[in-house]
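### Sample
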Amino acid sequence: MKIRSKISFPTLLSLIVVAIGIITSVTAGVVMMGYANMNQTTAGVHFRLRARTFIVAESSQGPRFAFVNLDAGMASQLVNIKVLEKLKSRFGNLYTEENVAISGIHTHAGPGGYLQYWLYSFSTLGFVQESFDVIVNAIVHSIVQAHINLKPGSIFINKGDVVNAGINRSPSAYLLNPAEERAQYPANIDTLMTLLKFVDGASEQSIGAFSWFATHGTSMSKDNKLISGDNKGAAARFFEDQFATTPIRAPFNSFNTPDVGKLVTKAQTIKATGGHTCSKTSSKECKVRKNDGSLFVGAFCQSNVGDVTPNVLGAFCTDTGRPCDFNLSSCNGNDLLCLGRGPGYPDEIRSTKIRGETISEGG
């Protein structure tokens, strides 16, 4: 990443990460939120979704700001209302609509049915209470844990450009902007990444980083049925793995046949990281990545995504294999046949991995 600027300032801060409580009834048969494709129903998990929170406060009970980065298509007004209701019952007026922000990473591979408006509920075949509840509860749990772990620290801000992570999915439309306006920018997409780094005041160790970068969560296609945080969720997972006690990157599922012998040999070299046994009857708290303030938290948040697509090979017609019409983004008049190709085409899981690594490593 090419650095543009860097500043820092001391403050009280805390970060926390907790997995969204995905359970069987949500991972099977729920229409996904993003592509408005009623046939895209959940049928398994690519990797678990999470809610990551940071809180910045002037003092332990003073003014503060809480930001939640949610592995979902977007947040919703109803989610915000219910989260704030639960926080008020525990903390009074410490957390309100004025100092709590909930932002989705815009993955198109998460369970739908948690938005209250008809336009969004239509494609998911109605409101899904269980989908809604696990999202609300995960956000609240994340904020509560962040609140408990509030401690002195410093924040550093950095900005830089990440290249090769996206292209403009509608370049012909961009060319309709006035030439003098286009001349103000070096590219037809925004390549700027802004990163906040959080450092523990006592140990001076990095305890987290939240970054904002523009690219759609569409490395996983409209035909995918596995719940996934897509490229930004993958980037967060990779980034956090780098700071784990045993920095072993968990393998991604892929359509390619793995060498089982090599995987077994590698697995035998991995030492236990101090977890505890979970059974089928264990509580959901046992099955999530909890944080007592000692684990690094990495979040890749969505920004001005606009027409930025991670499918950098361009758009092609599924019937002919030829590039889509440049001006109409269609194939003989049918825009449904025009689909983007990611860097790992035709393996979209590999594309998600590649794009997640690019974002995680800052280009």
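The two ends are 5 Å apart (CA to CA). This sample (Neutral ceramidase) is used throughout the tutorial notebook.
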